[in-house]
Amino acid sequence: MTQYALRRLLQLIPTLIGISIVLFTVFALAPGNFIDANPTISKERAEELKELHGLNKPLPERYVIWATNTLKGDLGMSLQHKQDVTTVLDRYMWNSFMIAAIVLVLSWAIAIVVGVFTAIKQYSFFDGAVTFIVFALMSLPSFFVGLFAIKLLAVDNTIFPIGGMYTSGSEATGWGKFVDLTHHLMLPVIVLTALNVGSLTRYFRTSMLEVIRQDYIRTARAKGLSEWKVIFKHALRNAMLPAITLLGIELPGLFAGAMITEKIFNWPGIGQINLAAINTRDYFLAMGYTMFIALLTVFGNYIADLLYRVADPRVRLK
Question: With CB atoms 3.0 to 4.6 Å apart as the test, which of 100, 186, 228, 282 could cross-link to 80 if both were Cys?
Answer without folding.
Answer: 282
